[in-house]
Amino acid sequence: MPKHGKKYREAARLLEPLKQYPPDDAIDLLKRVAYANFDESVEVHARLGIDPRQADQTVRSTVVLPHGTGTTVRVLVFAAGEADRVARDAGADYVGSDDLVQQIQGGWLEFDAAVAMADQMGKVGGLGRILGRRGLMPNPRSGTVVRDVADLPNVLRELKGGRVEFRNDRTGIVHVAIGKKSFEPQQIRGNLYAFVDALQRSKPSGVKGVFCRTLSISTTMSPGIDLDLAETIAKAAEAAA
């Protein structure tokens, strides 16, 4: 395995081995150990007590981060007729039907999220191999397949304003970006609590015992900081109440 660089090792020395930090202390420390000279993403990693091989234990949901993600989200909408007009008025970056399907089949993927009206899924379904691998496939579970055109503006507003999808990987870990290093501590804290609350609410019925086993926070390049699990979950629930 490659060795960590000097700056990473210096940052890691600021962490106490095996310590689980209260959320406020962890966010404060996060600012100190972030050493890269660009505006890194702030990431949360949750190790779950699930068996990812079991379909009834899959975790997949969305959360609207109250302070956004800190990035510009380009949204594509598969729509026709009245839905096409509504999507454009609501700020969609790309809107179309067969034309967009053909562009994507040709290799074009210059967007960050995709939404489809339900009547377009017959056309969009053939793009599963292309969009699915990149996490861009519209899906009813993530709220990106819309049946009522009246709901479309709200879906677009959430996607552009800070709605993110999260799901477990094959090892049972969820990784999600909740903001940027340049965010104020209270913004990172607010987004952290929103994600943790959404994660707790996403517990599959097939999971028995402890659902969330560990939580850590980091920036793109920095070492992970273990969070005090009980305190973080409690404060997330309190913030959501």
UniProtKB/TrEMBL annotation:
Q: Which GO terms describe its biological process?
A: regulation of translation; translation
Please give an example of a GO cellular component term from this record.
large ribosomal subunit
Is Membrane found in the keyword set? no
InterPro entries linked to this entry? Ribosom_uL1_bac-type, Ribosomal_uL1, Ribosomal_uL1-like, Ribosomal_uL1/biogenesis, Ribosomal_uL1_3-a/b-sand, Ribosomal_uL1_CS
Q: Which HAMAP family match?
A: Ribosomal_uL1_B
- Subunit-level organization: Part of the 50S ribosomal subunit.
Family named by the database record: Belongs to the universal ribosomal protein uL1 family.
Protein name in the entry: Large ribosomal subunit protein uL1
Look up and give the organism this protein is from.
Answer: uncultured Thermomicrobiales bacterium
